[in-house]
Amino acid sequence: TSRSVFFANEYLQIDLGGIAKGYAVDRSIHILQGLGVQHATVSAGGDSRILGDKRGEPWSVGIKNPRGKGEGQDGVALVLPMIDGAISTSGDYERFFLNKSGERIHHILSPKTGRPVKGIQSVSVIGPEAIMTDGLSTALFVLGLEKGITLINSFEYFDVVMIDDGGKVHFSDG
After folding, report:
1. What is the DSSP string of the chain?
2. Model-level pTM greater than 0.90?
3. What is the spatial distance between Cα 47 and Cα 18, in angstroms, rounded to a whole number?
4. By the 8 A CB rule, do 124 and 161 touch?
5. Dist CA 24 CA 164 (whole Å)
6. How many CA atoms lie within 13 A of 44 on its CB side?
7. Which of 13, 40, 52, 125 could hold 137 in an S-S bridge, CB 3.0 to 4.6 Å?
């Protein structure tokens, strides 16, 4: 059996950006654990993995306010206490440009239209491993608010914080 993939179109490529950083963050934590480290955070862009606690209390993980400053904290929409887990955020606010008519053109594209997804500014998925939270944050962004929250509520051990185009924060059941 062949374990290779090829495309008839020579210009088509696979980009593992949807899970690669999450995988790297998880591997880093596994290496640290192998060295006896019990308390650490590892981050790569919008993907973080927390190992243990912060010497007796949870780590504080901020979710960025996609359009400006948060209440009482510079640029942070909310802060989550975390122990032993992962969080990954996909958003329309890091890699984007405004076109001539002021429309935000970002890197998360709808597979149906080939255009940037609308309706969501930020999706942060919390779970046990970053490889899963990384992929899920992008998938839920594409699915949108209602379908995204419905899907994540069907998974055990995963939750989501979504910020819609109006800046309103939405949470999954957990």
Report:
1. -------SSTT----GGGTHHHHHHHHHHHHHHHTT--SEEEEETTEEEEES-SSSSPEEEEEE-TTS--SSSTTEEEEEEESSEEEEEEESSSSEEE-TT--EEES-B-TTTSSB--SEEEEEEEES-HHHHHHHHHHHHHH-HHHHHHHHHTSTT-EEEEEETTS-EEE---
2. no
3. 11
4. yes
5. 29
6. 18
7. 125
User: Which two structure tokens, joined as six digits, stand for 14?
Assistant: 């696979």
**Per-residue pLDDT tens digits of the chain, which is 174 residues long:** 678 878 888 888 877 777 899 999 999 999 999 999 999 999 998 899 999 999 899 999 999 999 876 555 568 899 999 999 999 999 998 888 889 998 888 989 898 998 999 999 999 999 999 999 999 999 999 999 999 999 999 999 999 999 999 999 999 999
Q: Determine how β-strand 159-164 pairs with β-strand 169-171.
A: antiparallel
**Paired tokens of 95:** 């890699």
Nearest 10 degrees: Cα torsion 146, 172, 126, 74: 90
Q: How would you label 116-136 residue by residue, b for 16+ Cβ within 10 Å and e otherwise?
A: ebeebbbbbbbbebbbbbbbb
Which of 25, 11, 13 is closest to 137 using CA atoms?
25
